[in-house]
Design goal:
The complex is a heterodimer.
Chain A: H1 2-12, H2 27-56, H3 66-69, H4 72-97, H5 101-131, H6 140-173, H7 177-206
Helix pairs in contact in A: 2-6, 2-7, 4-5, 4-7, 5-6, 6-7
Chain B: H1 20-46, H2 55-74, H3 84-114, H4 118-125
Helix pairs in contact in B: 1-2
Classes of the chains: A mainly alpha, B mainly alpha.
Chain lengths: 210, 126
């Protein structure tokens, strides 16, 4: 069995340099792995906010609870926007790998519009709640709700700014390795935000039915 | 130690894929599964055909499944030897998140349990 492994690796990488003598990994790998570590630490921040929400979710102080405030249809549309934008972000990376400016710009634009509509829906929900007097200062439940969902929305807006920056870099610098690396990091960031949103809509919005 | 030391010449970056066709297929499968799981979550939460107390468990299972789908098909995290670093750091991240969330919940519910009821507390302060 070990001989077959030997053959395949020898075919793929003719000079068999031991792992300990290969030197540092290519920058593409190191940078992306570093960004992966950043994403995990970012998810730990969200973990802390989720913990706060889990603990304070019932502390409504006589104010409204989740069932009175959340509109499920609204959340379903938000989820659809974010999910679709995750997919179009992947299509954008495929366009980047094919070195196609047109495909990259088209899918980036679709991703941007979907992300912006998500933010707009969330913003209108927040404005509606604050307008009714149910802002973050109403109860501990609402404080933790605005902290958790607001932090996610903040991440999405930073991501949209980053996307515009990447488009400018593709336009001015072209598809050089540095730009490709940043595009890949952006797609990781965007997909990670979608994973956080799964937790948000499950725990905050759908969990409110109990 | 039958495996040669240089079996993995290069680690795989998170999100990296062999070629664009693989990547496209992975995204299409991923979005399909994600749409089904999201739809199931919303349907389970809104319908009356699921036994009430089991809904939170069902929602948790669906959410964890969807997170797995996103990790595998969108972030392209695999258990292949070339992404050991990625999967190990992911495991550590999940461990810390679990510790923070469930640790907080256990501690606070224990505090709540041991706290004197508010009316008794007010009585004592009088």
């Amino acid at each position: 069995m070990s001989t077959t492994i030997d053959v395949t690796t020898a075919e793929r990488h003719p000079p068999a340099v031991p792992l300990s003598e290969q030197g540092p990994a290519p920058k593409r790998i190191v940078a992306t792995f570093g960004f992966w570590l950043f994403l995990l630490s970012d998810i730990i921040i969200f973990g802390a906010l989720f913990a706060a929400y889990a603990v304070l979710g019932g502390a409504t102080n006589g104010g409204p609870s989740g069932i009175d405030l959340f509109d499920r249809r609204h959340v379903l549309i938000e989820t659809g926007c974010l999910l679709a934008s995750s997919f179009t972000c992947g299509m954008m990376i495929i366009g980047t790998e094919a070195r196609s400016v047109a495909a990259t710009y088209f899918w980036a634009l679709v991703t941007f519009v979907l992300g912006l509509s998500f933010l707009w829906l969330e913003g209108s929900e927040f404005a509606d709640m604050v307008g009714k007097g149910f802002g973050p200062s109403r109860s501990a439940f609402l404080s933790s709700f605005f902290a958790l969902v607001g932090t996610h929305g903040l991440h999405v807006s930073v991501g949209l700014g980053w996307l515009l920056l990447m488009l400018a870099q593709v336009g001015t610098l072209g598809f050089r390795p540095m730009v490709m690396r940043r595009m890949l990091c952006f797609s990781l960031f965007w997909h990670a935000l979608d994973i956080v949103w799964i937790g948000v809509f499950t725990i905050v919005y759908l969990g409110a039915s109990r | 130690m039958s495996e040669p030391e240089n079996a993995v010449a290069e680690d795989r970056a998170p999100g990296a894929h062999q070629n664009s066709r693989d990547r496209f297929r992975s995204y299409v499968i991923g979005i399909g599964l994600a749409v089904i799981l999201t739809g199931a979550s919303f349907a389970a939460a809104s319908s009356n055909s699921v036994w009430g107390p089991s809904v939170p468990v069902l929602l948790a299972v669906l959410a964890i499944a969807q997170m797995g789908v996103h990790l595998v098909f969108f972030l392209h995290i695999s258990t292949a030897p070339d992404s050991t670093n990625n999967i190990l750091s992911l495991a550590f991240g999940i461990f810390v998140v679990g510790l923070v969330i469930f640790g907080s919940m256990i501690i606070v519910s224990n505090l709540n349990h041991n706290m004197m009821p508010m009316d008794r507390l007010l009585e004592m302060q009088r």
